[in-house]
Design goal:
Blueprint lengths: L1 H23 L4 H15 L7 H8 L1 H12 L3 H6 L1 H25 L4 H11 L4 H11 L5 H23 L6 H17 L11 H21 L1 H9 L4 H21 L4 H11 L6 H25 L3 H6 L1 H25 L4 H10 L6 H11 L5 H39 L11 E4 L3 H12 L4 E5 L2 H9 L5 E2 L5 H6 L7 E4 L4 H14 L4 E6 L2 H9 L4 E4 L2 H14 L4 H27 L9 H19 L20 H8 L1
Parallel strand pairs: 1-2, 1-4, 2-3, 4-5, 5-6
Helix pairs in contact: 1-2, 2-15, 2-20, 3-15, 4-14, 4-15, 6-7, 6-9, 6-17, 9-18, 11-14, 13-14, 13-15, 17-18, 17-20, 18-20, 19-20, 26-27, 27-28
Length: 640
C-alpha cells in the first residue's frame, strides 16, 4: 500500500509543478504533462515498470472525454456532420494508410505488416487535440470543427481495424509463439463474450450491443437519474454517472468493441437529456485527471535506451510519418475548401499518431501480425509524435496565425464609392444591428471594418461594407467624414475605439460620436476623450433579461417597466459622481476607496429607489401598459 501512495504522490507532484510552469510559458498543459512524465520516468527513474499498467487505466480518460464530447452533440448535429465525417474522415484514414503502407513496402516490409503500420499511423491523438482545442478555444473554428470530424471517424474506424488486423497474421510468427501462447493461457485469460463465435454471430452481437446502448440510454437512463436525483445526494449522482460510463465501457470491451465508441454513442443519446449538465459537471474532473495521468505515462514510457540506440531511425520515422500525414491533410483541406489559417490548424493538429496506436500495436503483437521488435520501435514513434504535437500548436500560434493576420492587415483598403450621413466603424455582431436598423429606415451608411473575412461575409449577403482600418485618418476622409452627421464607433478593441474617438473629436469637434463601451471603465475612457453618447454593450440586454425574470416570477408588466425606469434614473443620477471619482487618479489607482464607496452608495440608492412610490408622470413606454389593481404590491409581497 505504501508503494501505491508514493507512486501516486510522485505523479501528482510532477503534474502540480510541471503543468503550471508549462502553461505560464505558453506551452500548454499537454506538453507540461509529457515533460513531467519524462522527468520522473527516464530522467530520474522514480517510476518505471508500472507505467504501462497505469497507462491502460489512464486510457479511461479518453473514454470519458468522448462521453463528454457525445453529450455536446445532438443526433441531429451528428447527422449534419455526415459529409465531413465520412468524406473528410474516410479519405484521411484511407489515403494516409495507403501512403504509409507504400513507404513501408519500399523499405522492405511485407504487405501485411506494411498495411498494419499504415492503419496504426492513420490515427491521430483525440486526447491531445481535443484537450488543446479546449484550452485555446479552437473548437468553434472551421479548422477545429473539421479536425473533430476526422478524429471522430478515426475512433469509429478502430472497430473494423480490430476486426481486420487478425486476418493479417504471419504464419511464421504464429508458429514461433504457439508455445508462449499456451503458457500464457495458463496464467491469464481475457474476458470475452464473443470468443470463438462465428462471424455471423459476432455481427449480431455487435448490432445488439450498440442497439442496447442506444435504446437503453434513451429509455432507461432518465428514470434512473430521476430516482437517484430524489435522494438529494450529489455523491450518489456522481457514482451513477461513473457507473454509466464504466458499465458501457465494460460492455463494449466484453464484445471486443471500442469502449470509447460505446461511451460516445451514449453521450449522443443523452445530449437531449435534462440531466446533461449534471453529468458533465460530475464526469469532467475525473476526465481531466485521467487524461493528465495518461499524458504523464506517455512521457514516462519513452524507453531512452532503445531511443538512443536507434535515435536517427526513430526520429527519421517520426518526422516522415508526421510529414506524410501533414501532406495528406493539407491536400484534403484544400480539396474541401478549408481556407487560410484554418487549413494549417487542420493540418498541424492531426499530424501525429494517436493513443489508439498503442492499443493497435499491442493488438498486432498479440495476433502475430507485427514482430515485437518492430512494435517496440513503432511504439516510440507514436510516443515521440505525440510529444512533438504541442510544439506544432505553438508553431501555429506564434508563426502561422500571425502571418495570416498580417496578410489580412496588408490588404489594401477598399475604394469607397459613395458616402453617407452615418459612418459605422466596426461591423461585428454589434455594428451589424446598428447598420440594419439605420438602412431599413432609409438612412445611408458607410460601413468600415478591418476584418477582411467579415467584410467578405457581409458582401455575400448583399450588405455593402468596405475593408479598411477606421482609425486611419485618410480612410475616414475617403469615407466622407467631413460631410457626415454621425460616427458610430462599434470597434471591439477598446484601445482602438478610444484612440478613434479622441482623434475624431479633436479634428472634427462638431461631429456627433456614438460609441459602444465594453464595460464601465471603457465607458469612462470614451467619455474622457469626448464621446457624445456612450452605450454599454450589455446594459440594455441585461435590463431586459432582468425584466423578463421579474415578469416570469409573477410581477405585473406595468410594475416591471416602472422599476426598470427607476433603475435607469438612479444609475444616471449617480453616473457623474462615479465618473468624477474615476477621474481623480492622484494615487494612480482608478478604482480607489473613494470610487468603491460611491459604488456602494449607488447600490444603496438602487435599493431605496425600488421601494419608493412614483410621483412623476408615467413615461411613454409605461403608458402602453395597463396599471395593476390597487393593493397589488402588498398582495405580491405576501406571496413572496
Amino acid at each position: 500500500m505504501t508503494d501505491y501512495f508514493l507512486q501516486a504522490f510522485i505523479y501528482l507532484v510532477a503534474a502540480v509543478i510541471a503543468v503550471p510552469i508549462a502553461k505560464r510559458l505558453g506551452l500548454g498543459s499537454v506538453l507540461g504533462y509529457l515533460i513531467a512524465g519524462v522527468i520522473i520516468g527516464p530522467v530520474l527513474g522514480l517510476v518505471g515498470k508500472e507505467t504501462t499498467t497505469i497507462q491502460h487505466f489512464a486510457e479511461f480518460g479518453v473514454v470519458m472525454m468522448l462521453f463528454l464530447v457525445g453529450l455536446e452533440l445532438e443526433p441531429k448535429t451528428l447527422w449534419n456532420m455526415r459529409n465531413r465525417l465520412m468524406g473528410l474522415g474516410g479519405l484521411q484514414v484511407g489515403l494516409t494508410a495507403a501512403v504509409v503502407m507504400g513507404v513501408a513496402i519500399a523499405f522492405g516490409q511485407v504487405w501485411s505488416v506494411a498495411l498494419s503500420i499504415g492503419l496504426i499511423f492513420a490515427l491521430s491523438s483525440t486526447a491531445i487535440v481535443l484537450q488543446t482545442f479546449n484550452e485555446k478555444n479552437l473548437n468553434k473554428t472551421d479548422g477545429g470543427k473539421n479536425a473533430f470530424s476526422v478524429l471522430l471517424f478515426q475512433d469509429i474506424a478502430v472497430i473494423p481495424m480490430l476486426a481486420f488486423i487478425p486476418l493479417l497474421a504471419l504464419p511464421e510468427l504464429i508458429a514461433k509463439s504457439q508455445h508462449a501462447v499456451k503458457a500464457a493461457a495458463d496464467h491469464s485469460q481475457t474476458l470475452s463474450l464473443v470468443a470463438g463465435l462465428p462471424s455471423w454471430a459476432y455481427g449480431l452481437v455487435i448490432i445488439a450491443s450498440i442497439a442496447g446502448v442506444v435504446i437503453g440510454g434513451h429509455y432507461l437512463s432518465r428514470p434512473l437519474f430521476r430516482f437517484v436525483a430524489t435522494s438529494g445526494l450529489r455523491e450518489i449522482f456522481t457514482a451513477t454517472a461513473l457507473m454509466l460510463v464504466v458499465g458501457i465501457a465494460a460492455i463494449m470491451s466484453l464484445v471486443d468493441l471500442s469502449p470509447a465508441l460505446g461511451t460516445f454513442l451514449a453521450g449522443v443519446v443523452l445530449a437531449n437529456s435534462e440531466f446533461r449538465h449534471e453529468l458533465e459537471s460530475n464526469i469532467d474532473p475525473f476526465k481531466g485527471l485521467l487524461l493528465g495521468l495518461f499524458f504523464i505515462t506517455v512521457g514516462a514510457g519513452i524507453d531512452f535506451t532503445i531511443l538512443f540506440n536507434h535515435l536517427f531511425l526513430i526520429v527519421g520515422i517520426t518526422l516522415a510519418v508526421m510529414l506524410i500525414k501533414a501532406a495528406v491533410l493539407y491536400a484534403l483541406a484544400a480539396t474541401f475548401k478549408i481556407e487560410n489559417s484554418d487549413r494549417w490548424l487542420f493540418t498541424l493538429s492531426l499530424a501525429q499518431a494517436g493513443e489508439f496506436g498503442f492499443v493497435l500495436l499491442s493488438f498486432t503483437v498479440q495476433n502475430h501480425v507485427i514482430p515485437e521488435s518492430i512494435a517496440q520501435t513503432l511504439s516510440l514513434v507514436v510516443a515521440l509524435s505525440m510529444f512533438l504535437t504541442p510544439g506544432l500548436f505553438i508553431l501555429f500560434d506564434k508563426v502561422i496565425l500571425p502571418r495570416f493576420e498580417q496578410k489580412s492587415n496588408d490588404r489594401e483598403a477598399d475604394i469607397i464609392e459613395e458616402t453617407g450621413s452615418v459612418i459605422i466603424a466596426g461591423v461585428g455582431r454589434f455594428g451589424q444591428i446598428v447598420n440594419r436598423l439605420l438602412v431599413s429606415n432609409g438612412i445611408k451608411t458607410v460601413v468600415l471594418d478591418h476584418e477582411a473575412a467579415q467584410v467578405d461575409t457581409l458582401r455575400r449577403i448583399n450588405t455593402k461594407a468596405y475593408f479598411g482600418d477606421a482609425t486611419k485618418p485618410d480612410l475616414l476622409h475617403t469615407a466622407g467624414i467631413e460631410e457626415a452627421s454621425l460616427l458610430v464607433v462599434a470597434i471591439d478593441d477598446q484601445d482602438s475605439s478610444v484612440e478613434l474617438v479622441k482623434y475624431v473629436k479633436h479634428s472634427h469637434p462638431n461631429l456627433k460620436v456614438l460609441a459602444r463601451a465594453f464595460d464601465r471603465g471603457h465607458a469612462y475612457r470614451l467619455r474622457q476623450v469626448g464621446a457624445d453618447i456612450i452605450e454599454l454593450e450589455t446594459y440594455h440586454s441585461a435590463l431586459e433579461v432582468g425584466s423578463a425574470s421579474m415578469r416570469e416570477l409573477g410581477l405585473h408588466p406595468f410594475f416591471v417597466e416602472q422599476q426598470k425606469t427607476k433603475y435607469k434614473k438612479t444609475e444616471a443620477a449617480q453616473s457623474d459622481a462615479l465618473y468624477e471619482a474615476w477621474l481623480d487618479d492622484s494615487e494612480g489607482e482608478r478604482y480607489d476607496n473613494n470610487f468603491r464607496k460611491l459604488f456602494i452608495q449607488l447600490e444603496e440608492q438602487l435599493k431605496l429607489g425600488m421601494k419608493q412610490d412614483r410621483s412623476d408622470k408615467h413615461s411613454k413606454i409605461e403608458r402602453e401598459w395597463t396599471p395593476p389593481p390597487k393593493g397589488y404590491d402588498e398582495e405580491f409581497c405576501d406571496k413572496c
